[in-house]
Amino acid sequence: MKFDWKKTFVLGFGFLGISVVWPLFNSLIPPFLEDLGLSALVVGFILTWDNLINMFLQPWVGARSDRTRSRWGRRKPWLMAGAPLAAGFFILVPFVRTNFVLLALAILGTNIGMALFRSPTSLTWAICIHPSSAVRPMASSISWAGLAARSPSSAAAPCSRWACRCRSSSARCCS
Q1: Exposure of 90 by Cβ count < 10 A (0-12 exposed, 13-18 middle, 19+ buried)?
Q2: What pLDDT does 93 receive?
Q3: In a 10 Å sphere around its CB, with 0-12 CB exposed, 13-18 middle and 19+ buried, how is residue 3 labelled?
Q4: Are 123 and 74 in contact (CB under 8 A)?
Q5: How far is CA 102 from CA 17, 82, 97, 107, 133, in A?
Q6: What is the pLDDT of residues 138-173, one digit of tens each?
Q7: Rg of the chain on CA atoms, in Å
Q8: Residues 91-126: pLDDT tens digits?
Q9: Alpha-carbon distance 41 to 132, whole Å?
């Protein structure tokens, strides 16, 4: 199979977005929150929202994208929903920085949008690079593996199912 440079280039923009947003987000948000008079503890808590959201939303999105059937494919609807949502809320952040409630909602919207498209972007990239049938139904497994890195005891069962699925195409192996 011929390597698809165009698709790889387009998918690279998804990772570019992820790679650009987080450093900007993590450098701009703390001063905005501190300007509102919030303590370092509260600022730190707000900056952990993305991790808390990702712990629960990314595995769900991964599982849902594995089961999504649309004319655009499995992953593209999630990319088309999450990326504009994250970008829109991220753009709002500097405009609402003087109002805590609006700033918190913009931060939350950015985090949710990023969580919606991160797993499908990662898996779409993997499929583009290695389009084997074993890689395709793994978005939820990739997300669960991320959860396992954060909380090993809570994600052990889904990860063991993933390992089983990768070794064998038989559904009986994970029963």
Answers
A1: buried
A2: 92
A3: exposed
A4: no
A5: 23, 20, 8, 9, 44
A6: 544 554 455 455 544 444 334 333 333 443 443 333
A7: 18
A8: 999 999 999 999 999 999 998 998 888 777 777 766
A9: 46
For 3, 76, 112, the CA distances from 84, given in Å and listed in that order, are 28, 12, 11
CA distance 173 to 175: 6
The set of long-range contacts for 151-155, using a CB threshold of 8 Å and a minimum separation of 24, is: 151/55, 155/59
Q: How far apart are CA 162 and CA 175, in angstroms?
A: 12
- Separation of alpha carbons 157 and 168, rounded Å: 17
Q: Is the pLDDT of residue 41 over 50?
A: yes
Tell me the DSSP string of 24-52. HHHHHHHHHHHHTT--HHHHHHHHTHHHH
Which residues are within 8 A (CB) of 127 and not within 5 positions of it... i.e. 6 or more apart?
A: 135, 136
- Residue with the larger pLDDT of the pair 127 and 25: 25
Position 175: which residue type? S
Tokens of 104: 């918190």
3-class DSSP state for residue 18?
A: helix
